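We were asked to recover a plausible sequence for a given structure. The inputs and outputs are reproduced exactly as logged, with field labels preserved.

PROBLEM: sequence recovery
POSITIONS: 238
GIVEN STRUCTURE:
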């Protein structure tokens, strides 16, 4: 399993250094910066003994470019604004639940949004999983590095060998095919437009949270193709 810590459009280089320092505390080594501010000396100063993470940071202009380049299997977004039954896009899990699920091979992107603004709606929709930290209603939004430390700790403490050796998680392309097939089926079910969009988001999140194994993905893809074909044939008969 490779975990990429992705800082989307950081506004201050000092926070980049603080994030690198927090990463090293928990053994994470792959820092990605999306359209970052200029790296000043304070990034290296605040990183302390994690300066090499700042030095070796991978920089991309867009999130999409990074996802495609590294063949990301699962995208985990962080948010301080949790949703619920009436905000499907922002239904999250806790850091503890996240840590317990991350025991399979694959390239995982852990997204942290802009200081103050977080991830935007478009970036949230790209995520397979959302994670949020339960906090006081009086002051719910945490500093990015404080939030990162909690999430990194939960991932770190749950690290262990998966019970099945060399179990491969489905690739980013595999999951994209599953999502596209499911979306094609959903589009044929005569949902109202707003409902159709919600259902598609729900299915995407379910696929993301499942960390589907490669063979499971192949089997599910074949089943979805058969369902799609049956629907097409039934439509033609009518």
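RECOVERED SEQUENCE:
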């Amino acid at each position: 399993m490779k975990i990429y810590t992705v800082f989307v459009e950081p506004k201050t280089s000092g926070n980049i250094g603080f994030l690198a320092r927090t990463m090293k505390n928990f053994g994470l080594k792959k820092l990605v910066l999306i359209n970052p501010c200029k790296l000043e000396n304070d990034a290296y100063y605040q990183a302390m003994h994690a300066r090499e993470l700042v030095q070796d940071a991978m920089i991309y202009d867009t999130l999409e470019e990074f996802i495609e380049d590294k063949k990301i299997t699962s995208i985990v977004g962080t948010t301080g604004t949790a949703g619920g039954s009436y905000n499907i896009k922002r239904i999250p899990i806790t850091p503890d639940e996240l840590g317990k699920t991350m025991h399979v091979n694959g390239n995982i992107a852990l997204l942290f949004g802009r200081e103050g603004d977080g991830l935007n709606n478009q970036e949230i929709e790209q995520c397979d999983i959302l994670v949020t930290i339960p906090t006081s209603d009086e002051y719910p939004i945490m500093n990015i590095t404080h939030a990162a430390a909690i999430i990194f700790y939960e991932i770190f403490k749950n690290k262990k060998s998966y019970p099945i050796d060399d179990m491969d998680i489905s690739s980013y392309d595999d999951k994209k095919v599953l999502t596209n097939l499911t979306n094609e089926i959903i589009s044929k079910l005569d949902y109202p437009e707003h409902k159709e969009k919600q259902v598609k988001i729900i299915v995407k999140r379910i696929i993301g949270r499942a960390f589907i194994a490669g063979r499971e993905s192949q089997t599910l893809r074949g089943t979805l193709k058969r369902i799609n074909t049956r629907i097409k044939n039934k439509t033609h008969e009518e």
